[in-house]
Write a structure and sequence with these properties.
Helices cover about 75% and strands about 0% of the residues. It is mainly α and about 90 residues long.
Length: about 90
Amino acid sequence: MVSRELLPVRVIVTWTVLVLAAVVGPLLTLDSHGGTLAAVVVLAIATVKVRLVGLDFMELRHAPWELRTTFECYCVAMWMVLSGLFVFA
Protein backbone atom coordinates (compact mmCIF):
# COMPACT_ATOMS: atom_id res chain seq x y z
CA MET A 1 0.00 0.00 0.00
CA VAL A 2 1.35 3.41 -0.96
CA SER A 3 1.28 5.88 1.85
CA ARG A 4 -0.18 9.31 1.27
CA GLU A 5 3.16 10.98 1.99
CA LEU A 6 4.68 9.41 -1.14
CA LEU A 7 2.10 10.92 -3.50
CA PRO A 8 1.70 14.67 -3.87
CA VAL A 9 -1.80 16.01 -3.34
CA ARG A 10 -1.83 17.30 -6.93
CA VAL A 11 -1.41 13.76 -8.28
CA ILE A 12 -4.30 12.50 -6.17
CA VAL A 13 -6.56 15.36 -7.27
CA THR A 14 -5.57 14.87 -10.92
CA TRP A 15 -6.25 11.16 -10.74
CA THR A 16 -9.66 11.82 -9.16
CA VAL A 17 -10.58 14.33 -11.88
CA LEU A 18 -9.48 11.87 -14.58
CA VAL A 19 -11.64 9.11 -13.11
CA LEU A 20 -14.66 11.41 -12.79
CA ALA A 21 -14.18 12.65 -16.36
CA ALA A 22 -14.01 9.07 -17.59
CA VAL A 23 -17.38 8.42 -15.97
CA VAL A 24 -19.09 11.69 -16.92
CA GLY A 25 -18.11 11.63 -20.62
CA PRO A 26 -20.15 8.58 -21.60
CA LEU A 27 -23.05 9.67 -19.38
CA LEU A 28 -23.41 12.87 -21.39
CA THR A 29 -24.05 10.94 -24.58
CA LEU A 30 -26.70 8.55 -23.22
CA ASP A 31 -29.76 10.70 -23.90
CA SER A 32 -28.40 12.95 -26.63
CA HIS A 33 -28.62 10.42 -29.48
CA GLY A 34 -25.45 11.77 -31.06
CA GLY A 35 -26.14 15.44 -30.38
CA THR A 36 -23.56 17.95 -31.55
CA LEU A 37 -23.34 19.80 -28.24
CA ALA A 38 -22.76 16.57 -26.32
CA ALA A 39 -20.02 15.56 -28.74
CA VAL A 40 -18.23 18.90 -28.41
CA VAL A 41 -18.47 18.67 -24.61
CA VAL A 42 -17.09 15.13 -24.65
CA LEU A 43 -14.21 16.33 -26.83
CA ALA A 44 -13.59 19.17 -24.37
CA ILE A 45 -13.50 16.67 -21.50
CA ALA A 46 -11.03 14.54 -23.46
CA THR A 47 -8.89 17.61 -24.07
CA VAL A 48 -8.84 18.42 -20.36
CA LYS A 49 -7.84 14.82 -19.64
CA VAL A 50 -4.96 15.00 -22.15
CA ARG A 51 -3.85 18.29 -20.63
CA LEU A 52 -3.91 16.94 -17.09
CA VAL A 53 -1.94 13.84 -18.05
CA GLY A 54 0.61 15.96 -19.89
CA LEU A 55 1.03 18.51 -17.13
CA ASP A 56 1.00 16.26 -14.08
CA PHE A 57 2.16 12.82 -15.17
CA MET A 58 4.54 13.80 -17.97
CA GLU A 59 5.96 16.68 -15.89
CA LEU A 60 5.19 19.38 -18.46
CA ARG A 61 4.04 21.66 -15.66
CA HIS A 62 7.70 22.29 -14.83
CA ALA A 63 8.99 22.19 -18.40
CA PRO A 64 10.49 25.23 -20.14
CA TRP A 65 7.84 27.74 -21.14
CA GLU A 66 8.31 27.07 -24.86
CA LEU A 67 7.48 23.38 -24.47
CA ARG A 68 4.56 24.00 -22.14
CA THR A 69 3.12 26.70 -24.40
CA THR A 70 3.44 24.40 -27.40
CA PHE A 71 1.64 21.63 -25.52
CA GLU A 72 -1.14 23.95 -24.33
CA CYS A 73 -1.63 25.31 -27.87
CA TYR A 74 -1.66 21.76 -29.21
CA CYS A 75 -4.44 20.81 -26.78
CA VAL A 76 -6.59 23.80 -27.73
CA ALA A 77 -5.91 23.40 -31.47
CA MET A 78 -6.80 19.71 -31.45
CA TRP A 79 -10.05 20.38 -29.60
CA MET A 80 -10.95 23.11 -32.09
CA VAL A 81 -10.07 20.98 -35.14
CA LEU A 82 -11.89 17.88 -33.89
CA SER A 83 -14.94 19.87 -32.81
CA GLY A 84 -14.99 21.70 -36.12
CA LEU A 85 -14.76 18.46 -38.07
CA PHE A 86 -17.61 17.02 -36.05
CA VAL A 87 -19.85 20.09 -36.31
CA PHE A 88 -19.27 20.97 -39.96
CA ALA A 89 -18.80 17.53 -41.50
